Amino acid sequence: RAGFKTMKGCAAAVHGILQAGLLPSSLEIADRYTLDASRKHLGGQFVPTGDACLLVELDGQQSTVAAEAIKLTKVIRKLGGLDIRSAVAQRDRERIWGLRREFSYSLKASGYKKLNEDVTVPRSRLVDLIAFTEKLSKKHGVDIASFGHAGDGNIHVNLMIDPEDPAIRKRADQALDELFTQVLNWGGVITGEHGVGLAKKRWWPQAASPELRALHKTVKKALDPKGLLNPGKFV
Q: Which of 54, 82, 86, 109 is deepest in the core (most CB within 10 A)?
């Protein structure tokens, strides 16, 4: 686990780790907003120094992992990592992963409503995505907390809105319009794991080709010819 001065630097470190020939089983990142919420919710002792956090896990044979861990630490330090900590014992590993598991709860504890978008981009666009979300936040006046599975390019872009302010939802939707459009232009997808559902229904035609939507309808008709399953919700 390591801290970084900036989220863009943290995202760049993901590329650096992979380019060094390391293949971690997990690569997770989190931004300043997420870490600040965690500091308030959990206490500062659990959160690393800096405005971004990198979590990396290695697996394999004991001797191999030990050698790779030494190399990984050197790579992270060279890439600007701060407050680097490692763990081998199960209890110590769980303590580090406990921070990651509490990110969503920490954001919810802030009192704001969390609009969780799980966009996914090619890893080569990870730094670009972070820079783009920072610009969106400033442009639309909406706080954004980003964290997630950097190794897969799957980042949870959480728009934090005041549920008592009706105007902010409109600004949030405008930000999402721009976010999804850019992600698709980069060859990414608007959802990496959560699915489309109702929340992303209006962006589905933009994200899926006419041929793909026709295929979905064909499968739906074959499995549910009478339209009994989730009536009115099919996209």
A: 54
- How is 119-181 classified by DSSP, letter by letter? EE--GGGHHHHHHHHHHHHHHHT-EEEEEEEGGGTEEEEEEEE-TT-HHHHHHHHHHHHHHHH
Site of tokens 């293949």: 23
Q: Which long-range contacts (CB under 8 A, 24 or more apart) does 198-203 make?
A: 198/233, 201/235, 203/176, 203/177
Residuewise pLDDT in 10s, the chain (235 residues): 999 999 999 999 999 999 999 999 999 999 999 999 999 998 877 899 999 999 999 999 988 999 999 999 999 999 999 999 999 999 999 999 999 999 999 999 999 999 999 999 999 999 999 999 999 999 999 999 999 999 999 999 999 999 888 899 999 999 999 999 999 999 999 999 888 888 888 899 999 999 999 999 999 999 999 989 888 776 6
Distance of CA 95 to CAs 1, 87, 102, 111, 178, Å? 11, 9, 11, 25, 37
| DSSP code at position 192 | S
DSSP state of 189: B
Helix axes 7-19, 126-140, angle to 10 degrees: 170
What one-letter code names the amino acid at 110? S
Q: Tokens representing 20?
A: 């060094």
